[in-house]
Amino acid sequence: MPDAVFEDQTAAEVLADLARHIDISCVQAQHSLEDIMTLARHARSGGFVSAHVLPNWMPALRELLEDSSTLAGAPISFPSGGARTAIKVAEAEDLLVAGAQELDVVVAIGRLRSGDQSYVERELTEITEVVAGRVPLRAILEVGHLTDDEICLGVDAALSAGIPWIKTGTGWSGVATTEHHIEIIANRVQGSAGIKASGGIRDRATVERMIDLGVRRFGMNTTAALAIIESVQS
Fold first, then answer.
1. pTM of the full predicted structure?
2. CATH for 69
3. At what angle do helices 148-160 and 179-189 cross, to 10 degrees?
4. Which of 27, 29, 38, 179 is the most buried (most CB within 10 A)?
């Protein structure tokens, strides 16, 4: 799915082809090869746009998704965002070599909470330069740990760095992404970046409201994603 998808798809079009706007994931430390195989199977059969795994599983995921329409994705500096910039850059480079087709990078959350927008912007700029548009790239803000003003700082840093997508969270903060979070991001990006909602999204009604607010990609657990797709198709 091209990065420019957020520019020209209506809410009705997104809902009509919802699986192509959802990625499912196995990104917990205990996930085994069997879990990754199950993820790939669901991703294939459900027609989901992508499946995401922790970096060490990327080669296996690429093989499992070979000849499918599902992209293989992975997070960078997940879930804390606290690695040094050089480590994040190296991880991005390594994932590209391993065959990653999408990348979601966790921003330096503590830097945003400290008001250090310039640090976040410099770091994201370096990662953007490494990726160089070869695959979709998203900045994960982890909105559950941020105030409204800090969310705006993160959006501004990502936009200045040339990140084409803003993602709300990792799903690990313990705070679900809300419509209020989406409204803040949408008002800040003003259509200049895509929005991916992730973290605690479990029902169709929430998905529909977020689509109306401008969300064009979702990250969900497999169970929730399958249930929502079934409700849309029924």
1. 0.95
2. 3.20.20.70
3. 40
4. 27
Q: Distance (Å, rounded) from C-alpha 60 to C-alpha 51?
A: 12
Decide if 153 contacts 120 (C-beta within 8 A).
yes
Report the domain count for the chain: 1
The residues annotated as belonging to the active site are 104, 167, 196
The two tokens of residue 79 are: 């879930």
Residue 36's domain spans which residues?
5-233
Cis geometry, peptide bond prior to residue 164 (ω within 30 degrees of 0):
no
Sign of the CA dihedral with 227 first, then 232, 220, and 212 last: negative
What are the distances in angstroms from CA 137 to CA 41, 75, 127, 180, 214? 24, 10, 9, 23, 18
**CA–CA dist 226, 85 (Å, integer):** 36
203 and 176 Cβ atoms separated by less than 8 Å: no
For 2-51, how does the pLDDT look when each residue is reduced to its tens digit (9 = 90+)? 454 455 788 889 999 999 999 999 999 999 999 999 999 999 999 999 99
* Tens of pLDDT, residues 98-127: 999 999 999 999 999 999 999 999 999 999
